[in-house]
Amino acid sequence: MSVSPTLVLQAPHLDSARVTELAILAGSEPVAPVDGIARLAAANPARRELVLERASRLGVDANYVDSGRRFADFGLIVSDMDSTLITIECIDEIADMQGLKPQVAAITARSMRGELDFSQSLRERVALLAGLPEAALARVYEERLQLMAGARELLAACREHGVKFMLVSGGFTYFTERLKAELGLDYTYANQLEIVDGKLTGRVVGNIVDAEAKRRLLIEKRSELGLAPEQVIAMGDGANDLLMLAEAGVGVATHAKPVVKAQAQYSLNVCGLDGIRKLFL
What we know:
Order of helices and strands: EHEHEEHHHHHHEHEEHEHEHEH
Cofactor: Mg(2+)
Number of strands: 10
Number of helices: 13
Protein name: Phosphoserine phosphatase
Strand order of the largest sheet: 7-6-5-4-8-9-10
CATH topology of the largest domain: Rossmann fold
Pathway: Amino-acid biosynthesis; L-serine biosynthesis; L-serine from 3-phospho-D-glycerate: step 3/3
CATH class of the largest domain: Alpha Beta
EC number: 3.1.3.3
Largest sheet: 7 strands, mixed
């Protein structure tokens, strides 16, 4: 006999009125929300699309989760960096040092929506940075880079339950390596900017970490750790994360572009990254 999934509702200030409305729509018994979360048992998956659409309008993150899944059952989280673990797109902020943020940000946005080839668009954007002093990267890290809400709480949960955390970015090693040291991340992979005589050359060293590379790195680390696909969580926001999300047992679109929300198994739009931990018991 099949088991109905649990409908997990989350919002920063979740109230009983919204929970009750969504419970009735989902065919579940309402429960009182606790600390911004409500778990509705016996949710009817046939009403999934109706519930998700209404929840979005109500400002609630709604996800149908396999009953009984525990966060401690996972062994690895694979995360994108820009606009996922951190709030900014690093390349856009670097470009701002050159007075080119609008031009570069427009290319970034199109790439993240899946309208441009990622590798080609990255090379085009990096080329615009030629001549910029390396010190500009330090300014971006120190003055503009901020962690996404809930990131520290998610990382603390990973340490508590022995879940490894891997950062796989189409951004740059300058930032991933510093985040690894600051946050105690287990693994990081990203693109390397070429720097000569203290200035960016406008080129990337080696192969581009694109969508296929992210997928491959997830598979390699999963195999290395001896994990099954269902023991891996992947999270991201852009089109170049889709292959990675599909390869994981749990793929989470975090504050993502529409193309990613449409394809991801789970989605967080209003909650912080700690919402991933709270999806599971």
